[in-house]
Amino acid sequence: MPPRPPPPTPRKWSNALDMYRKVPTDLLEGTKRGSFMSFMALFAMAILGYLETRDFLSPKVVSDLSLDTNREPKVRVNFNITMMDLKCDFATVDVVSVLGTEQNVTQNVLKFSLDQNGVRQRLMGKNKNQNDIVLSDEGVTETIEELHENGEDAVSLDQTTLKFALHQYEFVFVDFFASWCSHCRDLAPTWETLAEVMTDAAESVVDDTDHDYSDEEYEEAVKLELPVIIAKVDCVNHADLCMSQSIQAYPTLRLFHNGDLYSDYRGHREVVEMTHWLANLEENIHPNKPEEEKKLSSADDIARDRMGVETSRDEMNKLPKRPDSRVPGSTEEKEWIAEMQRHRGRQREVWKDKEHDGCQLSGFLMVDRAPGHFRIQAQSSFHDLAAHMTNVSHEVHELSFGDPGIMRAIERAETNNKEGYPVVPPGTLEATHPMNGNVYITRNVHEAHHHYLKVITTHLDHPALSANRWMSRPQNRRVYTVLQSSQLSFYKSDVVPDARFIFDLSPISVSHRIKHRRWYDYVTSLMAIIGGTFTVLGMLDGMLGKAVGKRRR
Question: Where are the annotated segments for Disordered (predicted)?
């Protein structure tokens, strides 16, 4: 009996593990369909591999949301806004927040006068506090009733008589007032006294001639010799006339020359100050006129005699002499400053402003990081404003938050960027100033646009920014994006409208950063492309084979 063979020894588990078992070549069958599917698989693998490689080599800008950790107590608001129908004399900027209120902000704000076509004419200067002006002449001690006892010299005009006066006289000086206006009531005796001075000047001219006039003829001759007709218009009774003249505040003292608007008077409301202003205008308009024919110069001399002012017109035109020893806060220093303000006012009032209807305000504000608003409104310490004549239609040339130097640095970095991907996500720079170029027009009275601004702190991170030493600091890579909406608001008839910009800083900040893909993520994607393409096309080939086989049967 032959010996038994030894029992088979068990194979090791490592030898049993084989995921890549080979099939003999003679058992495989090649087909045209399989060849075509193989080319399709290789083509798909190449395309997908190229796209995946390009995506791996191209970093992305991603955005993260987090609580805002900005600890700066203030935020800067940059603005450049044109008020289309609001004079620079009345335009003021107020800032209001839950932490406090600042009225008529003057620091870092500039004003430019605009003509009726919106063309910028000249720099009005910084938005300084309105200089205090004398509202009435203390030298006029009579009441308006006492001045009217011998007749009313200031002529009351309406729509028809104003046209006649503008056609008849070279100079017409009109006080547009409202009976309820306290400043107008204070001015009334001074204005009547000014009219009496002009009447006295005309009478002196008539009396110098050898005449034999009757009383009526004498009065007519005096009217013809008036240097300037002093008139007044009650805007309560003649609202249409005042609206046609665009009277926005009371009292408005307006001078007409040869039927056209020449200028508004904004100086001290004293008799001598006004006659001095008129005499200077006469010299500017008629520089070659003989001295004896200058009626307003004669009226100025009469006013000085009547009011007891010893200072001559030439002395008033001279620059005030500075004190030898300037001690801040001293009486001499205060008097010199007051005289300088008067002198500048006289020189400024010579400027003809008949076509200067609008005002462009530009600059920046430092506001609290708290909900609040800033507004542009008509305001005056020396006038009562007509609410129905206040038009705050405006155009926003620029409105943004934060340091404008950062925005310029980002734009330069975007221009010089060689990384192949943007410095900031598309639309981010536009979101920092969404209102730029917008125009907001109010077509009815007692209306104004209010703008609501949600301000979001946005942090940027990009190699092109870090290359700049100044931009390498995190606080210098912070910008503010704005979500904006506007609506038309309606006011009560006695409230002066204002253009209001309401801002609120979001507690959530946005961070834009560069994200690079990991190498193992890329390798995994390549393997998935190769294996997935091979498997899917293999399944497709199998299904096609079965379908063709069934059809042949």
Answer: 288-332
Residue 343, H or E segment: helix 331-349
> Strand 252-257 relative to strand 249-250: parallel, antiparallel, unpaired?
unpaired
**pTM of the entire predicted model:** 0.62
Given a contact cutoff of 8 angstroms between Cβ atoms, the answer to whether 266 and 405 are in contact is no
Nearest to 247 by CA among 378, 395, 135, 103: 378
**Contact partners, residue 6, CB within 8 Å, separation at least 6:** none
Report the distance separating Cα 533 and Cα 32, nearest Å: 19
Domain 152-311 architecture:
3-Layer(aba) Sandwich (3.40)
What is the rounded distance in angstroms from the CA atom of residue 527 to the CA atom of residue 517? 16
Structure tokens at 131: 């200089």
End-to-end CA distance of the chain: 57
**What pLDDT score was predicted for residue 18?**
65
SS (H, E, C) 187-251: HHHHHHHHHHHHHHHHHHHHHCCCCCCCHHHHHHHHHHCCCCEEEEEECCCCHHHHHHCCCCEEC
Digit-coded pLDDT (tens) for 453-512:
999 998 887 666 665 665 556 666 788 999 999 999 988 888 889 999 999 999 998 887
Q: Is the pLDDT reported for residue 302 higher than 80? A: yes
Separation between Cα atoms, residue 87 and residue 112, nearest integer Å? 10
Pick the CATH number of 65-131+359-382+392-515 from 3.40.50, 2.60.40, 2.60.470, 2.60.60: 2.60.470
Question: Per-residue confidence at 15, pLDDT binned at 50, 70, 90?
Answer: low
> What is the C-alpha to C-alpha distance for residues 491 and 444, in angstroms, rounded to an integer?
11
Q: What is the pLDDT of residue 439?
A: 92
Cis peptide before 251, with omega less than 30 degrees from 0?
yes
